[in-house]
Amino acid sequence: MSGPMLVLIRGGGDLGSGVAHRLFRAGFQVVITELPQPAVIRRAVSFASAIYEGHVLIEGVEAGGSEM
Question: Rounded distance, CA 2 to CA 46, Å?
Answer without folding.
Answer: 30
